[in-house]
Design goal:
With 288 residues, this protein is an all-alpha fold. The chain contains 11 helices and no strands.
């Protein structure tokens, strides 16, 4: 468990750096267009900042998979929420953003929630991990449909001003779908590498690809840190729910542990919600 927590924290730090680098590159790249996915991807990767961010993100993904293979999904995702703390510090110190009092209050609340989660981790049994196939199918398909629908309706005139935030939430939910599928695959691979030839491999890849474009467009048109924070919150919430419903992750040991962890999950989400868009310095979003 200790190694898994170290890997998750390292992944959280690397993910925050990756998102900030990709945001810097995305706002300088041509507009991401659904009708030209390959051309849009090539244009994004021609931006050195986006390409560097993607390389860092691949490293963060490897650390994430390592953590998922060694700890319950809900625990890993809760620790990954520490990325919001890293995000705030890095954005202000190194990427030209200015955070106000409200943002720092959100960071502190998130840190408190993570501390409670760490203190209420229950003992992990020696039994083989279980999962509910019906819940897996239900959670994956429901979140995928809702996230895709949110991305589509964000283009409506009434939501155009909030389109970047909607796309951030949609991409985060899709990243969460990918995380749930990856956790399933870390269980399945114990039966041999051929177990990777699975509908859940397709689900992980499909969700990641759609999230790639959705996230890039959200970073182009939305307030940087707010979009990143909302992406992280949606991903964490989706994966934590999936861990509990699908993989039967424990939510604590005893009444005190259960109550503490439920409060902590709420604090993590509430703290993240208090991080609005800071002032953007030096960059303008790509125009239509």
């Amino acid at each position: 468990m200790t190694l898994a927590l170290i890997l998750a924290i390292a992944s959280a730090l690397a993910t925050s750096v990756a998102f900030l680098l990709k945001q810097r590159g995305a706002v300088l790249a041509p507009v991401v267009r659904v009708r030209h996915p390959l051309r849009s991807a090539a244009a994004l990767f021609r931006s050195k900042w986006f390409a560097l961010g993607w390389v860092v993100a691949v490293g963060a993904w490897g650390l994430h998979v390592g953590a998922l293979a060694r700890a319950p999904l809900s625990v890993v995702q809760a620790v990954l929420a520490a990325g919001l703390v890293f995000l705030a510090v890095l954005a202000e110190r190194f990427f030209g953003f200015a955070l106000g009092r409200r943002q720092w209050i959100g960071v502190i609340i998130t840190a408190v929630g993570l501390a409670i989660i760490a203190l209420t981790v229950g003992p992990r049994g020696d039994d083989a991990p279980g999962y509910a196939l019906a819940a897996l199918i239900g959670v994956e398909s429901t979140v995928f449909v809702l996230a895709t629908g949110l991305a589509v309706i964000s283009t409506y005139p009434a939501l155009r001003a909030r389109q970047g935030l909607c796309l951030g939430a949609a991409s985060g939910a899709l990243f969460g779908v990918s995380d749930i599928a990856l956790k399933f695959l870390t269980h399945a691979v114990g039966g041999g590498v051929l177990e990777l030839i699975s509908p859940w491999t397709f689900a992980a890849v499909a969700a990641s690809v759609v999230a790639f474009y959705t996230s890039a467009r959200g970073l182009q048109i939305g307030p940087g840190v707010e979009v990143i924070a909302l992406t992280a919150v949606a991903a964490n919430l989706t994966a934590i729910i999936g861990g509990i419903l699908v993989f039967r992750d424990s939510i604590g040991a005893g009444p005190l542990g259960i109550s503490g962890r439920m409060i902590a999950f709420g604090l993590v989400i509430a703290g993240a919600a208090l991080i609005p868009a800071p002032v953007r310095v030096g960059y303008r979003p790509a125009q239509e």
